[in-house]
Each structure stands twice: as structure tokens, then as C-alpha cells.
Amino acid sequence: MSSQAAATELDVLIVGAGISGIGAAHYLQREHPRRTYAILESRGALGGTWDLFRYPGIRSDSDLHTFGYEFKPWRDKDAIADGDKILAYLRETAEERGIDRHIRFHTKVISADWSAERARWTVVVERADTGERSTLTCSWLFCAAGYYRYDEGFTPHFAGREDFRGRIVHPQHWPADLDYTGKRVVVIGSGATAVTVVPAMAATAEHVTMLQRTPSYVMPVPAGDKIAERLKKVLGDRRGHALARRKNILKQAAVWRFCQRFPKTARKLIRLANVKVLPDGYPVDEHFSPPYDPWDQRLCAAPNGDLFRAIRRGHASVVTDRIDTYTETGLRLASGRELPADVVVTATGLNVQAMGAITLSVDGRPVDLADTVAYKGMMLSGVPNFSYAIGYTNSSWTLKVGLLCEHLCRLLARMDEGGYDTACPEVADPGMPLRPLLDFQAGYVRRAVDRLPRQGDRAPWLTSMQYTKDVKLLRKLPVDDPELRLSRSPAHAAAATKAGV
């Protein structure tokens, strides 16, 4: 650990050493090399999701030319990449830029209290391995801890669980000793995790059944990107990566806009793609026709059609039904059908956890996140010198994170220029209509919506999910905003007066 990373008083504290935290550190040290910072990571390794998840087939569901960093070219031939490759990419990024030397592992943030007098956060941290608590201070707190609990996945209650004689596992806590070779497996769920796990397990299991209550949209997509590979071959890694990234940003935006404007046509096109890769006569409408429109929830990707290939070969199947109860040998469904199983995988989702479960307060007054409004999708009303990283739900997560990190660096520069040490968003219109932070229908979001911040109906209180709009707002427009109050703390003003400034 460097002397800077061992300090107790820093300029910036970044919470989380995943893809967002590592990206934030890069932008910060590039744009503000004199600012001191540390990354606080509760686990014992960097990588966040990509180090935590170990289930079979773990991979991205976005292409790595956009899911990866703008500043570091993705060089692997697989655009939809597995978890090991993504983790190696993150480790390489942190090592190349010396970011790894700023990480404090096994350090969990418990609480943070803002002092208006000193313009500093007092942050209580706990050693995850010993339980010992200590205090750090910083002038800016950046939460890059993601949006879900790392220690607990979501598993709904099903009757009879204790009667089942097989093994039940959640993908978020995959046991290293699980051997499913030649066994009957039931995967409960129909989201991105289930769509990933089923074909991966089907390669060695006797049979894998994806049991879903409601179908999801699943699109077969190429695992590689031939155009990107040609661009990199002709133009070199850096320029080729930049053009491939731009191409894929435009492609993602076009697909999303098309689905929003023409949902019926989009539904028909997805159905045609499914029919093409499934066996003749397969009941597509029963198992792959959701009751909602495309992109009301995130579309699932099947690289090279792996899920459909497993179904076609008879190694996997889909059942759409409700669970009545576990039995000793499997699951009994609402229809009365019995599904035999040796292993049940509960790919039933995440538990949303806002702001890393940090208890925030301002001058001793607790902050209730549900009472705050998101400013530019990166700060909270009434909470000074605090920002967070939540990426896009309708395209690559990292596209949004990169833009808001750039904007934060611009804001810090503006504060330096004006001699300010405090930045606090304040809603000018108390009657502004509010709505949920994430207009997204996924179950894990709906379960937590009442505990999350809100968003408004106008800029800068809208949380945009469109990259082109965010480029304008976060990269091109001035930092100064009537609803962002920049000020000098009493301590700062007194010091300036004493110095004759």
C-alpha cells in the first residue's frame, strides 16, 4: 500500500473496486493528479461483480467495446466475453495505471457524516476480516458500490424446501465443490443469469430445465464482432477500438429507440429470430413471448444462440409454470406436473442495495434516500460533495459511468477555479412532480423502488438513459447550474481571509 492509500485524510474516497470504481480512479488521477484518493473495497479482491460471480458461463450481456473503458481498448476476439476475461481486463487496467496501489481491501464503509463547517466527510469504516472500526475523512465521497447486495441474493420462499433431498444453490454464491455432471438440473428463473447458466450447465448435466413463471425476450447474437476486428486490424487497437465503440453505441441506441417506437414490430422480429433457431413446431409463444414490450425489461442475449442450440440438441428445455412446492425428488408445479431434479439453481435475482448501504448524514441529520432527488443521475439533492455511479439499464453500464466520472472531474476543476469547497444540488421547485429513479420493470427494481431516490420531470433532475443526451449534459454543457449551489465553508472562508485572499 502506498503512503497515500494509508492516509486517513484524503481528497476523495471511492467506495468499491469494481468496474465503476476503477474507472473513477482513472479519470480522477488523470484530470486531478494532485488530489489524494483511496478506494475502499469490502471484499478481498478487485473486480466487483466479475470477481464475485463464479457460476457456469458467467459473461457480459453487452459488448466489451462499450462495456469496457473508452480509455483502454478491448483486444480479445470475443465481444461478448466471459467473466474471467473481464476480470483479467479490470486487473490489467488497475495495475497499468497504479490504481491497485490505492485500494484498501477488507474495508467496509459503515457511515459517513458531512460537516458543513469543515466541508469534509467523516467516514466510519470497518475491517471486514477483524471487525475493527476506524475513521477517515475526505472532501468528496464517490459511491461506486453498484446497486445490489454482494452478501445475499434474492430467493423467494417456496414451500417444501426442507423436504428436497438434492442441492439448492444461488448463482451469487456458487459452491466450488458442486459437481452436476450427469445430473438433472432445474434452473428457476428466466433473466440474464438463467439464460447464461442453462446452456453452460447443459454441456455436462444429464438435462437442464429452465423453469420460468414469465418468459423473457432472448435474442441470439454473435459472440464476436467481425467489423470491430477488421477495424482494429487496419487502424490499430486504439483507433479501431474507438470506431468499434462508436458503431456499437449507435447500434444499441438504434435498437432501443426502435423497440420503444415500434414495440409490436420489434416483438415480431424477435419472435422470427427465435423461430429460426428453435426446432420446428416449438411452442415459441408459450416460452419466449413475454406479456410486456421489448426493453420494458432488459433483453437477454444468447451468444451464438447457445441457449437455443442446447434446446435444439435436447440438452435443455423450457417450462413455463408456477411452483407449488418442492418434493423430495424435485419440484411439483401448479399444473400438477413434476420436475425431477438433483440440483435446483435459484436464478431468481438480486437484492437491491442503494449506495452500498452506507448510512449518510449531513451535520448529524440522517439522509433518507427516498426523500432525495437525483441530480444529473450522479448526485443527490441536499447532500453535498457526494456522487454515485449507476450505469445504463438499456445499454452498456460503463457508458454512463464514464460520462459521469468526466463530469465530476469537470466539477472539481470548476470548484478549484472559483475557490469553492462545497457543491450541493438543491431543488428550486418544491412542487416538481417526482417519479422512481429507475423507470424499469425488472422485479429486483420494483421490490426496492420505495427505498431509492426519486427523479424529477425536467433537467437536471432527470436520470437519462440515453447516451447522446448524456454526452451533451455531462460532457459538453457547462458545469454551472442554477440548481447546483457552489459555496465556501466557514473554515475555508476564514483560512482565505487569514491568507489575504
UniProtKB/TrEMBL annotation:
InterPro entries cross-referenced by the UniProt entry: FAD-binding_MO (IPR051820), FAD/NAD-bd_sf (IPR036188), Flavin_mOase-like (IPR020946)
Keywords: FAD, Flavoprotein, Monooxygenase, NADP, Oxidoreductase
Superkingdom as given in the UniProt entry: Bacteria
Gene Ontology MF term list: flavin adenine dinucleotide binding; N,N-dimethylaniline monooxygenase activity; NADP binding
Presence of keyword S-adenosyl-L-methionine: no
Cofactor dependence: FAD
Protein family (similarity comment): Belongs to the FAD-binding monooxygenase family.
Record's protein name: NAD(P)/FAD-dependent oxidoreductase
Species of origin: Streptomyces coryli
